[in-house]
Amino acid sequence: MGWWPFSRRQAESGRAPDYYREGLKLAGEEKYHEALTSFRLALRSQPKDSDIMQQMAVVYTHIGMPEEAIRFYEAAIRASDDAPAAHYGLAFILLKQGDEASARRHLREFLTHPPGGEQAAAHVEHARKTLERLETPGSGEGIAEAGE
Fold first, then answer.
1. What is the pTM of this model?
2. Best CATH choice for the domain 15-80 from the list 3.40.30.110, 3.30.930.10, 3.40.630.10, 1.25.40.10
């Protein structure tokens, strides 16, 4: 195992490591287990940070641990009144597990306070279309795959 780059930087500059940014970088490189380690360290210093919890949920989803992902999405929702990404991610995990009622509830919550910006627009549209299909009788088939 190599050295953690932040360990050397901290010793050299006296600055505290930014484990959250490190976790994002590692997740972007698909080094998911290493990213979780960084996010856990970030959460240790900021235990109520819903952004960290949401990123952990995303990583757990990527490594096929949906129950852990659900746990962290729910924690993010409890920690912040403004966690639309947590509602979005949680909705699609629940949908994949066959819990359409809970998925609808989280999609509605996401759409009540959707994030703005160009990057979010595709997710907002995807949520709208998925919720519409869920609320249209007889059109629920194939919905679980829509979230993937």
1. 0.81
2. 1.25.40.10
Name the percent of the chain in helix, strand, coil, to the closest 5. 75, 0, 25
On the 0-12 / 13-18 / 19+ scale of CB atoms within 10 A, 14 is: exposed
Q: What is the Cα–Cα distance from 76 to 125, expressed in whole angstroms?
A: 23
pLDDT, residue 1, reads 34
Question: Which residue type is seen at 37?
Answer: T
In whole angstroms, give the CA distance from residue 90 to residue 97.
Answer: 11
3-state SS class at 85: helix
140/105 Cα distance (integer angstroms): 15
